[in-house]
Amino acid sequence: MPVDAAPQTFSAIPADCAGGILTIDLSALAANYRTLRDRVGPAVTCAAAVKADAYGLGAARVVPALYRAGCRTFFVAHLAEGAAIRPLLGPDCTIFVLNGAMPGTEAALHAAGLVPVLNSLEQITRWRALAHQTGASLPAALQLDSGMSRFGLSEEDLGTLLAENAPLAGLAPKLVMSHLACADEPAHPANHAQHTAFQRLRARLPAMPASLAASSGLFLGPDWHFDMVRPGAALYGINPTPGQPNPMHPVVRLQARLIQTRQIGPGTAVGYGAGFIADRPSRIATLAVGYGDGFPRAIGGRGHAILPTRPDIMLPIVGRISMDCLAVDVTALGSTPLAAGTALDLIGPHHPLEEAAAAAGTIGYELLTGLGARYHRLYRDDTSPQGENA
Ligand SMILES: *Cc1c(COP(=O)(O)O)cnc(C)c1O
């Protein structure tokens, strides 16, 4: 991400007073979408998972950027998430609600122009009841449990359903889908077991488009693509092939701004619980991002920050993370001037999301979706036509 390119600003918190700056590169996001779409080829639909506010990055900006990149199929988890993005999209777009409709919200889901993923016999019954009431044939996706034991009809459920008279009456099935539990471990035997189970189960249904793969599944190869893939993480720059080079562009940069520095002597404690004690003369910087910003407390004593002008030096985060700040040992910078307000990278070009997540004992998904509302958010879009920034 070019640091100097004029960014487009969109945030409630002005840059000059923000403690942290979250930069989201919509051009990189669009490039990632095109990479994935090209990888599956023109015969396969490349949808986008934009649940949890587009993995914390802001669905209001991410969804239109994906639309401009050519995406027409979107997955959210909840009705409210779908309703929020529906006005951003044309009638040429389909929004699937992964969790299906909570009881009593079927009519609202339909009125919002959304399509439920029907995960259980009960959800199917309720959706058919709405179809019966309205006299219309209602679009739906059907989920099958191919082995993750989370969502979808089991083999037994499917048998129960198909034993009914006209089991899909009132439904206009758009998609049959399932989800892989271990796609990020290509050699895991569960992958082939799920593939086989999915094929066996869907063969019992009338022919309809099928989807099995999310980000990592897409990289397992063409056998896994079926008619539609549903990447989320890879769009946002999370490595879909853990342990191998990341084929995606980084989308997120997280910076914390410096409040003050101090010189401390050996034996001096830093932070709550005296969690760090200097063993040499040290220069400590206090940065204005803490767990109140969703920056994980678990990263205290394990993570790093980087001064963008000295990307060769990893600066250890020392002591416990506070709610509103964290401490970094900047001794290695020597006498490099560090003015108040200077932005240091917590996630950035020289410190990938995965490294920060690993230091916190978590995954990029959780780190991204946890990033709070207190950052100044910069949306960078080098490809956006004038006026798209409203
Ligand atoms: C979240 C989700 C996706 C996207 O998964 P990624 O690993 O982020 O690509 C796709 N399908 C379903 C059912 C999901 O829940």
Automatic annotation (TrEMBL):
This is Alanine racemase. It comes from the Bacteria. Residues 251-380 form the Alanine racemase C-terminal domain. It comes from Gluconacetobacter liquefaciens. It is an enzyme of class 5 (isomerase). One of its GO terms (molecular function) is pyridoxal phosphate binding. Catalyzes the interconversion of L-alanine and D-alanine. May also act on other amino acids. PANTHER family: ALANINE RACEMASE, ALANINE RACEMASE, CATABOLIC-RELATED. HAMAP family: Ala_racemase. Its cofactor is pyridoxal 5'-phosphate. It catalyses: L-alanine = D-alanine. It holds the Pfam family Ala_racemase_C. Pathway: Amino-acid biosynthesis; D-alanine biosynthesis; D-alanine from L-alanine: step 1/1. Its EC number is 5.1.1.1. The active site is at K51 (proton acceptor), Y272 (proton acceptor). Belongs to the alanine racemase family. InterPro entries: Ala_racemase, Ala_racemase/Decarboxylase_C, Ala_racemase_C, Ala_racemase_N, Ala_racemase_pyridoxalP-BS, PLP-binding_barrel. The modification N6-(pyridoxal phosphate)lysine is found at K51. NCBIfam families: alr. Substrate binds at R150, M323. Keywords: Isomerase, Pyridoxal phosphate.
